[in-house]
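Chain A, query sequence.
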Amino acid sequence: MLQEREGRAGNSARLETVEIDAKAQIKEYKESLIIDAAARLFYEKGFQRTTIDDIAAALGFTKPFVYTYFTSKHSILVRLFDRIYDQVIQSATHFDDLADAPPAQRLRHFLSEYIRKNLEQPQFSAVLLEEEKNLSPEKLEDMRVKLRAFDDQLMGLIKESAQAAGVEVAEPKLVALSISGMVRSVHRWYSPKGRLSIEEVCDELTNIAMRAVGLPAESLAAPPPKTARSRPQK
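Chain A, predicted structure.
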């Protein structure tokens, strides 16, 4: 009997854990829907001209649905900024498969992923650049600290790659800031309906960035083929 009661208790605990996990996943999914809708509207209309009603309508829901997950439009903006940064930094700095690769290859991976994220999600990079003025002073400083850390990591890769290749880079910080400035502004001119696909633009901009570092030609070779992440242009 004791074992039976313990078994039932164990099953109940496991079911409760599964239920909690399921609820957390549903909550995360709904929050993600709201953030995606808000990002599109902030991109198209601007933060100030977008209302909670607009965000709810874009999802086919009512305003109380949005307020169930976010206390205000500003709280959505804050989460959007965190999400943009997390996605970019996780993608660009995922070096698990390149732990033993030459520095130039890791730099190329960093640049390629950084550029690709900005091309794939132009509304995110646009919001990041255009709407920081609507953040609280505390959140604005937090984001600037994170972006400086990101640029410092890029600078470190530039210095390491240049040193390994025997190339002198007089101002690695300036090179890193110039590359970041180029990447963060791609949303202003890139069109998915253009002549070049995301992969083609990504490769070319990555090559431009590598040349800015002054690396030799062999460092510009394309990395191993990956699964296609975007549809070819028609």
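The first helix runs from residue 2 to 45. The chain has a mean pLDDT of 83.
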